[in-house]
Here is the input.
Amino acid sequence: MFGSIGVTELVIIFVIALIVFGPRKLPELGKSLGKSINEFKKASNELQHTLEQEIRVEEQQKVAAVPAAEPVPPTPAAESTPPGDTVPR
Here is the structure.
């Protein structure tokens, strides 16, 4: 989760935060940090969901815009060959 940050580095960061903010403010800061991270994740998920929806809509529009191919009538040579004989002689 923290990438290359190890346990030692986390302890040092915690001690520095404890000295700077004090033991009474630290729980409040942790709570607000947790809420901020949660809101960021929600916004990120919403953005990803919106982008996926837009991509699906564009793909559907592209498929709907392509006209259906008209069937090609059989050629006269194909009609004159007897059934089962696929190679003209």
